[in-house]
Amino acid sequence: MSETGAEKATGSESMPDWEKRFRAPRVSLPDWAEDAPQRSLFVSNATGTYELYAWDRTTGTQRQVTDRPNGTTDGVLSPDGEWIWWFSDKDGDEFGVWLRQPFGGGPDEPAVPGLAASYPGGLALGRDGRTAVVGRSTDEEGSTIHVVRPGADAPVEVYRHRESAGVGDLSHDGTLIAVEHTEHGDAMHSALRVIGPDGATVAELDDTKGGTVELGLEVLGFAPVDGDTRLLVGHQRRGRWEPMVWDVASGEETDLVLGLPGDVSAEWYPDGSALLVAHGFEARGELFRYDLASRELTRIETPAGSVSGATARPDGTVEYMWSSAAEPPVVRSTSGGVVLDPPGMKAPKSVPVEDVWVEGPGGRIHALVQRPAGSSGPLPTVFEVHGGPTWHDSDSFAAGPAAWVDHGYAVVRVNYRGSTGYGREWTDALKHRVGLIELEDIAAVREWAVASGLADPDRLVLAGGSWGGYLTLLGLGTQPDAWALGLAAVPVADYVTAYHDEMEALKAMDRTLLGGTPEEVPERFAASSPLTYVDDVKAPVYISAGVNDPRCPIRQVENYVDRLTARGAPHEVYRYDAGHGSLVVDERIKQVALELDFTERHLPPAG
């Protein structure tokens, strides 16, 4: 079907641009099989729900792998290209089991019959497609890691601890397993342990010990060569994320001084001779090739904007996912052209972002601003707060902010303290005064937005999802005169109840952020909980929540809503049958439409 025909068939000719951005077919950066690089796996919303797809590059054949009412995005292609492993949970609750099916199609089968349902804790597959290292966690058992071998009677447990841990990688020859763990109790800074298939410790790397400053490590991957014991590791020793090479056998550490100012990650080129380097700085991304022998760093040309993923192919080309705030995402190749271009209507462009730097109580704050083309202030303004909290907004395409711009709003996104991409100290500043620190930075940017003439002070909207939803509710209570209304999606609303109901890995994160449990530091949980300030909320509140959400569970949201109801505060609640967000396009559109409608009805008129 032609593009024009496809648009007529879906009725998109009269569809508003903001809805087209959600409905336009999208694809993820394709994963590919190490020993069968012509076979790939990607995620697409082609059916209206995000699902996994297999792609044979030789024949051009694409096949839908999963088909579930609430979608599927967690999948891994085995190195031999024969099997697709995917995680099966129930309606987004993130608690389930691994299934697998042949690359060419066929029935799903339990991938690890001896393991009960759990939260996933990483997965690494052996080159035979059947050997696997499976990480998992439950509230009762904590974190466990198991080795699965074909023909074995049952999976073999090789690791167990109450604190959070997960599978980092499996060496190319299957003799070494890299584990990220937080046995020291700091869920924000992992240490590394390499073990054998029997669970015996081979080597340790721990930057969290000694001194008052704790540093994190992360596994970036073993060298893709048999018998090669080099492990690529991310570290924070110079105040930001950078890669180094750790030879597990000899203990030798090779520091890679790349001279790049932002956070740096890397992955191996397929022959192990070079690294594909991803550099993120001030909300933009770029790529480099680093030759390990010559120590030469060569820039890979990409357009200005954000690179959200990249992979080096066996022929030396690099495929990467690129977008900007104005330009929709596309999978490109350094060989030229687009790697995957799904048929159907194309997502309309939006407007570019403007960079703003504001002096705040903890240092310079970076904010990204979008405004309707040709508009002049003061405008109704949405402060769209990112989740995480260890995440950041970037110059990348986002359908949600673009929808607000289409409706005449300015959008401001703040990379508050706690955000990644601005150095370790900026991220780690979040501890103990959780929520309140972020809101101080948002308040500083809000003052700039009003003083600069961008924002109408009487028409300010505080909005966000997940941690952004949490900050929205907390901001409405602690800054009640600053906001005209609030829109909170899948939020933390009652921190104490959320802690007791959430998945174990998030309990560990909360203990790290707040310095203990609700019983150990009740005053900190009270100071950081939106429920503490609910009676001070003046603005109308809209809340959406997934009834199966394991991260921001529904009971604590209901506690907050009950308090709003008891005092007759204006609010609306939308509950939907999914987890921490939805993978169904219609559901996403419905939620944006409800937020737009609520805002139109409750935001004061101009002047």
Outline the structure in words:
It is built from 11 helices and 36 strands. It has 607 residues and is of the alpha+beta class. The strands form 8 sheets. It has an 8-stranded mixed β-sheet, with helices on both faces. Strand 18 and strand 19 (242-247) form a beta hairpin. Helix 2 (17-23) runs antiparallel to helix 3. It starts with a helix and ends in a 5-residue tail after the last helix.
The span between the termini is 49 Å
Taking strands numbered 1, 2, ... along the chain, how are they ordered across the largest sheet? 29-30-32-31-33-34-35-36
The total of beta strands comes to 36
Mean pLDDT: 95
Helical proportion?
10-25%
Q: SS-based structural class?
A: alpha+beta
Ranges where pLDDT stays below 50 over 5 or more residues in a row are 1-9
Strand content: 25-35%
Q: Globular, elongated, flat, extended or rod-shaped: what is the shape? A: globular
Main sheet specs: 8 strands, mixed
- Count up the helices: 11
Q: What is the radius of gyration computed over CA atoms, rounded to a whole number of angstroms?
A: 24 Å
